[in-house]
Structure formats: structure tokens, C-alpha cells
């Protein structure tokens, strides 16, 4: 399943097959597919990530988020929208802030490359059986 964060992109978990000389591994690993206004991304390069069509993409659940922090869903939605808008304005103004997602990873821009770096704990939490293979892929 994937989650669409409007104006920013989609987070998903995808299966990936890895062939070694001794074994074939199928691991689950996190990916992020950027979906921002292209005018924000002038002069920036970002990896092209394709989420397979069979992955179910759900909208961000503002109600669930509101339950984790005791704020009304409309306030949570407004905070998310304003944060993404601020981030896109900063990118447009050639600022290079990092965008931290708690327990997931960091969206950062280094040498004009915008990429998502997932925390090892996030990858390990998704793939219990072949954790090291998933960490090497991610």
C-alpha cells in the first residue's frame, strides 16, 4: 500500500527481487515518488521512481493523524498543506532545506539532487526476514 501526500509525492512499499549467486531474495523496501510542481524544481535533479501499478495508493489519512496528536482533522490538513507549500517556496527560492519525516526518513537536497533517504529503522521495520538485503537496496 502507498500513501499520497498531496503536492509532495507518494510513499509506498514495493517488493523487489534480488538475485545472488546462491539465492533469490524478494524484499519489501520503501520508495518515494516525487510529485511536486515542476516550477519548484528548476535546476534540481531527482531520481525517477516508478511505483508499480498494482500497489494500492491511498490519500493521506488526516483523521488518523489527528488521533495521534489530538488536533482536529481540518487543522492537521491545513498544517500539512501549509508545510508543503512553504517547502516548495523554499525550493523555488533556491533554498535547500531538509524535510524530516519522523520514523521514515529525510527528503534533502545535496549538490542540486533532491532525494529521499530512508532511516535504517524504517527499512528494517518493513522487511523482517531479509533486512540486510533491503538495507543495501535502499
TrEMBL record:
Residues annotated as signal peptide: none
Example GO CC term: the record gives: microtubule organizing center
What the entry lists under InterPro entries is as follows: CCD81, CCDC81_HU_dom_2
Q: Where is the CCDC81 HU domain?
A: 57-127
Q: Which domain of life is it from?
A: Eukaryota
Q: Which protein are we looking at?
A: CCD81 protein
Starting at the broadest rank, the lineage of the source organism is: Eukaryota, Metazoa, Chordata, Craniata, Vertebrata
This chain is encoded by the gene named: Ccdc81_2
Amino acid at each position: 500500500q502507498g500513501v499520497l501526500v498531496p503536492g509532495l509525492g507518494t510513499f509506498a512499499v514495493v517488493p523487489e527481487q534480488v538475485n545472488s549467486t546462491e539465492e533469490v531474495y524478494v524484499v519489501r523496501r520503501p520508495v518515494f515518488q516525487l510529485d511536486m510542481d515542476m516550477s519548484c524544481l528548476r535546476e534540481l535533479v531527482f531520481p525517477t521512481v516508478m511505483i508499480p501499478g498494482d500497489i494500492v495508493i491511498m490519500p493521506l489519512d488526516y483523521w488518523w493523524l489527528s488521533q495521534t496528536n489530538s488536533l482536529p482533522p481540518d487543522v492537521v490538513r491545513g498544517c500539512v498543506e501549509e508545510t508543503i507549500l512553504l517547502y516548495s517556496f523554499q525550493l523555488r527560492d533556491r533554498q535547500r532545506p531538509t524535510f524530516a519525516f519522523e520514523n521514515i526518513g529525510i527528503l534533502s537536497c545535496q549538490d542540486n539532487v533532491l532525494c529521499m533517504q530512508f532511516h535504517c529503522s524504517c527499512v528494517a521495520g518493513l522487511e523482517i526476514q531479509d533486512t540486510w538485503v533491503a538495507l543495501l537496496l535502499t
